[in-house]
What does this fold into?
Amino acid sequence: MPPRGKAGTQERQTPKRPVPSVRPSLPREFIALHKQRRIMDALAELTAEQGYEATKISDIVKRAGVARKTLYDNFEGKEEVFLAAFDAARDDVMRRVEEAGAGADGDWQARIEDGLAAFLGYVAENPSLARMSMIESLSATAETTRRYEDALEAFVALTRGALPSDERLPETIAETVVGGVAWIVYQQIRRGDAEHAADLLPELTEFMMAPYLASA
Amino acid sequence: MEQLPRGRHGLSREFIADNQKQRILAATAEILDERGYDGATVAAISGRAGVSKSDFYAHFASKDSCFVGAYDEAVERLRGQMLGACQPRSEWGDGVCAGLEATLAALAAQPEQANLLLVEGLRAGPELYGRFQRAVESFVPYLRDGAPAGKSAGRPPEAADEAVVGGIASLLGRRVLAGEADRLKRFFPELAEFALTPYLGIAEARRIISSR
It folds into this structure.
């Protein structure tokens, strides 16, 4: 399994080994981060296949191809692996959405559409992480549920910033719109069709814009 | 919910059993609201309901099956209140407004029910979460049925009805979590606008809402 995500995103969770204060000697640190990534990917895949509850440490280390000791050197347990994988995925997708929106200049409609396309693209390319983050997180542990709610809140703030301000529109518009989009994407993933999430772009774009288009 | 008077009474065994079950379900919603999933023990629920633990277990195999029973009943109660308001309406837009208004009023009148339906449903494990998803999905046809087939700019997007119901559920859940259950009615105008706009356009949606 090729490593995904940038090395910088691994710094989110605290590995038990001390973080070097000088430029790491590449081979050892690279291998450590690569193994962390493989453990997180393995958990995402297994959770998507069989659910969080049914996934055991022995399953994870086998799928990741690491020793049990390696997992426990880097993470306290299953939940910590989940949270690290969730945080990394959330950072990746937020960065992608922000970058896509930044290219649109003053055109808010293009910004919304490009941001949505980036989000749906991420879901389509990372179906296991999408299922883990948007479905399993809500029934795994109390802390994973909180992470989901915080991430949703972050997307609401991002969307509110991208939508044009209009005094006639209610405060809650960004929340209801993001909630609606999340619901639709959730259904798509649940049907096992995450790979085709990009197909949702036209209708979700229209849904997000509807309150702003007077001639709709 | 009132306990039955002590001593002999002419009530049937079925009535007594049903009354007990209703008290347990009502107590479950209250205790969940006060203490959350982990704090809602069989002892706490039985105590609030005024039943013994053995009476509890005569009705429910476990705490979790009791939660599921409470959840299912809360969904059906809300559904009844909503349908009672919207079904008599002949105009689709008017019916959607009436149903939404009744839903907000029902949730605001019983905050512990709102908490059970919209907050605990997301936090109290996979079983309840599955019930939450199915409940939200079951409300989609009420919006979809009778919706205008086309508007001046063309059909509304396929997923609009699901997105509307899902978006409203998401927003209400966040507000209930923030302790604002009793003030949900103030969201009526904006949620009605959010629901009607994909089908009628914003101008027509506003006209309908302001003419009520």
Observations:
- The longest helix of chain B spans residues 13-39.
- The mean pLDDT of chain B is 89.
- The radius of gyration of chain B is 20 Å.
- Chain B touches chain A through 35 residues (CB under 8 Å).
